[in-house]
Design goal:
By secondary structure, this protein is mainly alpha-helical. The chain has a domain of 70 residues. 58% of the residues lie in helices and 5% in strands. It is built from 7 helices and 2 strands. Strands 1-2 form a two-stranded antiparallel sheet. Helix 1 packs antiparallel against helix 2.
Length: 203
Amino acid sequence: SYIRPNPSGFFPEKTFKKRIDRELKDTMKKLKQCMSNDHDRSKIPLNSPLYKSYADQLQSCLNQAYMTPTPLIDQIRAVRELKMVQSIRTKLKKFKLILRETDKSGVLHIGSAADYERKAVEYRRTTGAYELLTSNPFNDIICTVTHLLNRLQSLKRILERHRVKMMPNRKKTELAYMYFIPKPHKVIPSKTSYSKFIIEYLV
């Protein structure tokens, strides 16, 4: 029910101009790559004036999002909530705690990092479902998948556009990992009261 106001009151104008320029360049670069290499629809040449028109509209939207002044009451609220979040992060790090949303009720749960690690070790020992890796196989997996896709395309088992879509992106791909989702909803009846307690305790 609350939309956080833009952060124009926290940083100098020069900072936001750099951020706007960076986001604009990054977005236009991705857009041109997508629209000039799309196999499923008509391509748009890189020298098309449509890109300039879109860039102007996008820059206008970014300027409005970053630079439009916000009411004083919203700025005060944003500063207060920023300090609250920073305080929570500091105390979680200091006392080696983990703050996580539960699986069903949506309440927040605080547990010690040591307790989570103990549960992970116990779970791996009793189920045998996971193996603790001593080295990172990420690069080997990426190379194997890439080689397989290239081979399937060379054998004409898949089309080039299928190969491109299935090719893993190193920046967005990560290994599957195990983590616990606490279930305190069975003993804590109120989401609101529990969340307020956490904030009051940490802040």
